[in-house]
Amino acid sequence: MTVRAVGIGEVLWDLLPAGRQSGGAPANFAYHAGALGAEARVVSRVGRDADGRDLVARLGQLGVRTDAVEEDPAAPTGTVAIEVGADGQPRYVIHEGVAWDRLAGEEPGRRAAAAADVVCFGSLAQRAEPSRATIRELVRSAPADALKLFDINLRQHYHSPEVIEASLALANVLKVNEPELDLLAGMFGLPGDERGRVAELARRWGLRAVAYTRGDRGSLLHAGGEWSDHPGVPTAVADTVGAGDSFTAALSLGLIAGWPMDVVHGRAAEIAAFVCSQPGGSPPLPDRLRAPFLAAAAKL
């Protein structure tokens, strides 16, 4: 059985100092899931313009299936201006009123979500209607036993307590980073230290797993009442664009494969560290990192 992975939300051009690259967390997730052996699709919307045609073509070159990418006759394809600081951290200017804000949930996208083994969605593409309602409808339509992974992915001011709480209620897996956990702690009154906050998120929303990434302090994974604490993989950082999305893709496929939690965690951390060492969010992954996932996919 081939794992069917679907990223739902924004696809766009990242306008990096070195030139434009295809981006958007759902697209990056789909790319990495596909590189690790899944049948990967993105459900999104582009403009009826040259940027849209180029973006769909680029996603296809990366191995991402694009039959569920809608075309908008009026709104332009999304773009994000990115500056990378001396610390490798990206700073974003996300343009508004673009095609992915108008995601309609056309038939190919509905079919993809309804057949998915894992759907990944975030908060950014829920910044406006009709995308907000469409994304929630698509996530609800995924099979009951599918992973419904909320990668909170806060950007600028494009989030609210209502969006986050509604998304947590739809999800069964959460990916959150250090500043996002601090925000959630204040927003929802989460108690204690980082472990206490992670455990409370899992308890309050009935989450199967919570992955908490801490930058150069590594990451923490909580699943089934158990913990896995990874110190991180030392790496020379080119930029961190797409690293969290690669971690999320590896995490979801490892959970579906049924690997022990420390194994899932270690392989996800290795892949994210490699992506940090490369420019952009969708670098080719080395065979040594892909091999365990491809072997597991062959056994499903």
Describe, in short, the structure shown.
With 300 residues, the chain is of the alpha/beta class.
Explain what this protein looks like in three dimensions.
With 300 residues, the chain is of the alpha/beta class. The protein is built from 10 helices and 13 strands. The radius of gyration is 17 Å and the shape is globular. Helices cover 40% and strands 23% of the residues. It has a single domain, classed as 3-Layer(aba) Sandwich (UDP-N-acetylmuramoyl-L-alanine:D-glutamate ligase). The N and C termini lie close together (5 Å). β4, α2 (50-61) and β5 (69-72) form a beta-alpha-beta unit. The relative contact order is 0.15. The strands form 2 sheets. A 9-stranded mixed beta sheet has the order 5-4-1-8-9-10-11-12-13, with helices on both faces. The chain has a 4-stranded mixed beta sheet with strand order 3-2-6-7.
Kindly list the characteristics that best describe this protein.
300 residues; alpha/beta; nine-stranded mixed β-sheet
